[in-house]
Each structure stands twice: as structure tokens, then as C-alpha cells.
Amino acid sequence: MAKTKVDSGGATLLEEPADFYRPPANQDSATRPSRPARVKAEPEDDAGEPFLRARRRVPVRRGLLPAWTRSLWGKLALAAGLLAVMGAIVALVLGTRSFLDHDPRFRIDSSASIQTLGNSQLTRNDRLSVFGSDIGRNLCFLPLATRRAELEQIPWVQKATVMRLLPNQLRVAVTERKPVAFVQVRGRVDLVDADGVILTLTPQQMETRHYSFPVISGINAADPLSVRAARMQIYQRFIGELDANGEHVSAQFSEVNLSDPDDVRATVTANGSELLLHFGEENFQARWRNYQAHVAQWQQQYPHLASVDLRYDREVVLKMAGAPEASGNSKPDLEKKPAAPAKPAPAAVKPHHAAAVEHKSAAAHSTKTHKPLAAKHKSSSRTHSAKDKAHARRRPA
After folding, report:
1. Separation between Cα atoms, residue 181 and residue 219, nearest integer Å
2. Which listed residue, of 136, 245, 322, 353, carries a Cα 20 to 30 Å from 153's Cα?
3. CA torsion, points 207, 211, 213, 219, in degrees to nearest 10?
4. Cα–chain-centroid distance for residue 248?
5. β-bridge partners, 185
6. 289 vs 38, 134, 240, 242, 285, CA distance in Å?
7. pLDDT tens digits along 13-37
8. Hey, what domains does the chain have and what are their CATH numbers?
9. Which residue has the higher pLDDT, 323 or 180?
């Protein structure tokens, strides 16, 4: 309710009681008078002026360049300043490069300034073949990536790292390859690592290193590195499986032939004679156990034994010196009964009992060794022996 004060001369809004506009309880809603709308008067300050709400300020976007650059002369001055700064930067770079290039403190004086770490086979001539042209040059402008690639082209270097040591030192850290076997290449014996890389040493260097490896045949220097690496993986698996129990079986092999990836052949010395063992491509340790268990019996029964084929599960194939291969049972208890069926051996006739093997070996050592005739004679000998046994059974005791 607005009332007028006498002393102020203005209108003041006073709060009315809560039940001022409440109608009587018995008054009908139809006859109820309408409630007048409240009017909120604007507050006045002490001077009698009405209070005005401040407007929201809108930020003004300004440019990156100052205002003086908007004029023509300002733009010209700005362009001249940028050109001066760029010229100063280029002059600084060229001056620094000239200083580093001509200052003798950054120059590699001799090969003594090249430090080499981790090398035992890398010779001084090998280092000079890579860094010889850098002696007398500035250290700051050496192409380190190119020198690292040239170092890794040396057969003995597997990995290399080249670093600058200011003011005039160069540090070279190399990781050399480790030989795992000897290899026959062009009539000479060299070394080979697990990746198939052939490593060459002079005879004098070979004498100072006491390597004890088998000699690998079947790897040629003309073969691609991928072919040599695949065959060396077979060799690693072969040696690793035989030496898995710590017995160091590989020390008994004088030669390992990898020319056929499906048949690893190894030469071993037994009772003063050399035997060629065919291991195939798997189960190397089991086949070596089979050989160890029966080699004494085979050599006693066949004094001229030259090779043993261990690739078959229930029998082996024996070959005499200067004779075709003959097959024999790998277990002594099978000598008196027919052998179990197995894979046919190449260029051999399977016997039905050990006596047939003895007969075949005797025929092989005769002056005339013809394989079809030996097989034919072998079958007739079995027939006659069977008839003799039957005739002996018919005789009275």
C-alpha cells in the first residue's frame, strides 16, 4: 500500500498486514473484489534520483599488432624490423658455423682421438677404413649415421654406436658377433655366427683363439644370408636339444652336415672309427639315446659299420664301409622275431630277422656286390633255412 510522507514529498511503499486483502469467510467468490496489482517502486538514492542498473560491458577484440602498424609508414617500419631480425639470425648461424669449422680445438688430430669400446676382433685397419678420412676434419660436421652404417658392414660388427665428445673426441661402441661353429668355405675353415654371417680370421689369429666347435658343411658364402640364417637356426636347435641336459653332447661331433634341411647328419667318433649319423629334422635327443644304447652291439656285430640312419621309430638302417645300406633292428629282443612294419628305408631291403642282416653284410663285402642278386640270394637262403628246420623236426630223436 503506497502512502505519502509529509516530510519527504514522495510516495513510500509500506507493507500491509497479511490479511488485508483476505475476504470475509461468508463472502462469495463471485462477489470477491479483485486484488490490486503490486507496483514495485524504484529505489531512490539520497539525492532523490531513481537507481539505474549498470549495463554489461562487452569486451572489445584487439589485433595482435599495435595501432601504429595500421598506417602505411607503420607497416613499412614493421617489415624493415622483421628483415633486420632475420638477417641477424642468419649472420649468427653462419658465424657460429664458421667458428666451429675453422677452430682447431674441434679438429680430430689423429686416430688416438677415436675411442673404441667393446671390440676384441675389430682391428686398427678396420677402424681406419671407416674413420680414416675424418682425421683432420672438424668433429661437429662428421656424418655419424653414415659412419655407423659403414661400421656395421664389417662382418665382425653386429651393432655400432658413434658419439661426439667435445671438443675433439669421437667414441665408438661396438657389439661384435659371436662365432658358434667352424664352416668350410672355398677349401678353408672359417667361423660362422648364429645369423649365418661368415667370419674370417688369419691363421695367426686362429691359433691365439682356442675355439672348440664342430665343422659345418652345407653352407656356402654365395648363398643369400636368409638361406644361411635358416640353416643356422636348424643347427642351433640341433645343438641346443642335444646339450639341454648339460651333457655337452655336441663336443663329440667332428662335423655337422646341413646341406639337406630335412636330414641333419653328424659325424661322431666311436671306438676309434668315425660313424655318420642321420638324425632327420626332429627328436634329436631321443635318437641320440637310441644310438648310445646300441652302438656297442652294432659295432660288435658289424665291424665295418660306417653309418647309422636313426630317422625311423622302430628300426635303424646300417651301412657298411664300401657297401650298400642294410637295415637292422634297434632293439636286441627283436633279433629273434620279425621286425615291426616301419617306413621303407631308401635303397635298402628290410630284413625279417637279424640273421638276414648278417648274411647281407657278408654278401656286401664280397668282390661282386650287386644289390638285386643280394636280395634274391637273401630270400633263397631264408627258404632253405626254413626247409632244413622243417626236415630236422621230422627226424626221430
Report:
1. 11
2. 136
3. -60
4. 26
5. 188
6. 113, 59, 15, 10, 6
7. 555 555 555 555 555 555 555 555 5
8. 107-176 (3.10.20.310), 179-350 (3.40.50.11690)
9. 180
